[in-house]
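Input chain follows. Return structure tokens only.
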Amino acid sequence: MKYVPMLFTGEMVRKLLDDSKTQTRRLVKPQPPAGLVPGGLVVESTDRKRLGRWSWRPDVDTYVRDAVSSRPPCLAEDRIWVRETLQRVESAIGTRPWVYAADQTPVQMRMDDPHVADMVAWAHHREDNERNFCPSIHMPRWASRITLEVTKVRVERLQDIPFHAIRAEGVSCPEHDFPGCFCCSECSDLRAEMSRLWDQINGKRAPWDANPWVWAIEFRRVD
């Protein structure tokens, strides 16, 4: 088991906190060459760094020493510690404590940690309309409040995501979801919302329409 940092947007952090998000999809790097399909984990290699990687082979029953491969960001039983945006806000006594930007919950700061100074320096060097934010990529490990236990990892094409998995991604249907009601079967509006959210984050690298290979990661939140 290992601990792996992973970035989540503020909207997805809120979904994690209410346990409506139990899956995430991350881009496979590198993408398999055109025409190849995933073959399986590399179990034989002259390069030990390749062991455990996912190999890309036309023939799914064989492994080769020079397989093109990608390593998943995490494996089953690993733990994900969530990185999210932090924000400095004015308090009643005039100081500027850090809070989680997703829901304004105060962060328990460790003032003896050198990361605190780095976060403050980052905030002061931003433009005026951004100076109060510390991006999730700069969040230190000790500030993370959410830990996820990985239960399953698989590889699939992005557009092959089934209806129940879109729900597990924490995606809400903009047309049918409101208090007391939600769409409970395949819905084009829900799938379109999944497409929009994917492109909002990954559109420049691998848009929805390109139907890239992704790691489908299932998890549960733990204390």
